[in-house]
Structures are given as C-alpha cells and as structure tokens.
Amino acid sequence: MPTVVLAHCLDFVTWRNATRTLILHDVAAEEITWRIRDPADTATPVGLTPPLRVDAQARATFGVPRTLMRLVEDVMQTGAPDRLDLAYRLVLRQVRGTTPSHAEDADGTRARHLAQEACEQTRAFRAHVAASDTPADALRWDRPGGFVAQCNARFVTLQFSFHPWRMELQDNMMQWDGTSLHLGAPLQDADPASFPSPALPLVEGMDIDRITALPAVAETARSCLVCAMAHHATQTVFGEGEATAPLMFVGEQPGDQEDRIGRPFVGPAGQLFDRALQEAGIARDHVYVTNTVKHFKFFNRNGRRIHQKAGVEEIRACAPWLQAERRLIRPRLLVMLGATAASAILQRPVVIGRERSRPVTLDDGTCGLVTVHPSFLLRQPTEEARTREYQRFVEDLRLAGRLIAA
Ligand code: URA
C-alpha cells in the first residue's frame, strides 16, 4: 500500500508531487494512506513510500487544469479531515476522464463547498487585518477556520509593508520579524513556500492606501487580476527606479518586450528614451519610470502581438497602483509621456501639441510636465521629422532637469 507522509498539515507541495506520481501509476484513492508527520518525528522521511519511478516524459505530459488545481488548493487550506483523499480523487477522475455529471457529483459538490468556505474565511480575515487599528504586534484572529490565516501571512506582511507584526490565533500564533515568518505548533518548522496559495489573489481586500513601502505595493500588484489584460499578459510590469527620485516618468503601458522581461521601457521606445535622457544629462538610475497601465494590452495578428491602446477600464483598474507610486515616491516633478498618461493624471482629455513643455500643478500639488511619448518619435515618417521631434523631446527633458534643479 503506498503511504504518503506530509511534512506538516499544510504541505501542499508534497501532496502535489506524490499525487502526480501516484496518478501516473494509476493508483486508486482507496489504496493510498495519507499521513501527516508528527513535528517531533524528524526520522520518518517525507514523501511517498515505497518510491515509484516516473520517467521524465510522462512527468512532462502530466497536466491538470488550473481551475482544478485552484479548487484543490482552496480545499487544502480548510483543514477538512478528508481533504487529502478528496483532492486526490478530484485530480484522478479528471486525468482518467471519469468526472461525473454535476447532479451526481458528491465529491465536486463537497469540494466547491469547502472552497467557498475558504474564500469567505479569507475575505473575513483580510477585512479584519485591513480594518485593524491595533498595534502590529498585538493582532488577534481567533475564529476557527482551518489554515486560512497561515496561508494569508503574506497578505499581512504586505499590508504592514514588511514591518514586524505578531498575531495570536485561536490555538497558536504567527509572527513576522521583519525578515522571516514564524509559526506556532503544529507548523513551527514548516516552510511557507510549501503552503497552498491563498484562496483569493493577494490584491483582493488589500488596502493599498495603507501600504507604506514601494516593494510591498509592487509585490501586491504582481497578483492583480482586476482587468482582463492581467489574464492575457505575461506579467505585471511595475515601475522601477529610485524610491526617492525627484523625477518620475509615466508612460502608457508595457510593450511586447517589457511584458516578456518584466521591466518598463526596455524595448525600442525605451531605448530611445534612454538615449534622450542621456543627451539631456539625466541618469536613468536616478529617476523613477513607470506606466499608467501595468499590463501589456495586445491582439494577435498572425502570431504577432500587436499593441492595443489602453482603455478606460484598464486605466481605472490600474489607477490605485499609479496613485500608490506617486504617494510613496513623492517626486518633485512628474513627466507625463504621451496622451494616455497625461489624460489619466490630469483627469481630462489632453492634446499633447497644445499642452506640452508647460509646467502644470497636479491635484496633489506636485509639478507636472506633459511631453510626447517616445514611441511617437519612432512613428515619424521621415528622417528629418524624426530628428526634429527627437530634439524637441530632448529639450523637454532638459526642461525637466532644470525644473527639479530649481
Ligand atoms: N511604452 C510605454 O508606454 N511603456 C513602456 O514601458 C514601453 C513602451
């Protein structure tokens, strides 16, 4: 009889690895014994006994839909006593193609019920953290509810901007000392990387206005799935640069290369931008560069990803991120590169030709400056126009340099 020993009650990674191996050997759920190792018993090895071999090719072809894995992760964090078996049966029947109809699906119904419970508890836990005005070292969460609190430790850490915090739980505690997470028994030696991920994206329920460190905002933005683009793009491309930069540049949205690499302004427009910055005597390392929208919006044409202008929906969805960047960087001058950035920040339609090169005061009192987007330079039809527009752009950057020096 195969036995799987998990390192602790939230050891999703061992469960997942063992499940893949056992399913590739077509082992029925009833044949498996799932055990959680006693924290004092470090002699018993974690994993599957007896070990079963799986060749690399079979391993590579094994795939389970993301929605099912999401359901399984949600079930795991409820702490329901039958969760390990139940989750195994759900994956096995999917791979065998024997999922019953909705009406006869007792396992599916139970799993969905548990997942809903995990979502509700996650929402309640996060609302409690976000509303809490107790000192960070005196937090309390004493409602029962499996391991939802532990799975959301990252949420608490981000909400407190990586500052130390401590939370008493119903029968144990968890604590972030500014560097690592410490958990009470029975999870005291557990690696949080082996936990199922929280039932809701990190951003859901996060009070972004309360975060006081830029890396915490950036990390939260990485799990943002608010707009449709977040589901299509490769990754969130957050701003980068000096956290105390006097000069902040805001573009439209990442392009194809930015989307692949994960950094703003690194593609053709970014390279031209870098050249112009250098010519204007501004070091890119000393400024902060970001975009109005943090995901690449595109459509597919013959396998090529073609840029699509960011719309109202994406701009609105991303507004809290840009707002947080502005609040935390507090630049002396904010340069709006192109119409998307300018109209999002000035909150009205902007005709660049009419408004460029003139300092304006923004809603938070910061000085603002509108100029063209570097990709406008790339679109010029002739060499002469390109040179002329490039020089005008460099002049605007020089003006920016003078405005922060003044
Ligand atoms: N265009 C932008 O607006 N931003 C980038 O990051 C790249 C191209």
TrEMBL record:
CDD domains: UDG-F4_TTUDGA_SPO1dp_like (cd10030). The keyword Hydrolase applies. It comes from the Bacteria. InterPro entries: UDG_Type-4/5, Ura-DNA_glyco_family4, Uracil-DNA_glycosylase-like, Uracil-DNA_glycosylase-like_sf. Keywords: 4Fe-4S, DNA damage, DNA repair, Hydrolase, Iron, Iron-sulfur, Metal-binding. Residues 238-398 form the Uracil-DNA glycosylase-like domain. One of its GO terms (molecular function) is metal ion binding. GO terms for biological process: DNA repair. The keyword DNA repair applies. Belongs to the uracil-DNA glycosylase (UDG) superfamily. Type 4 (UDGa) family. This is Type-4 uracil-DNA glycosylase.
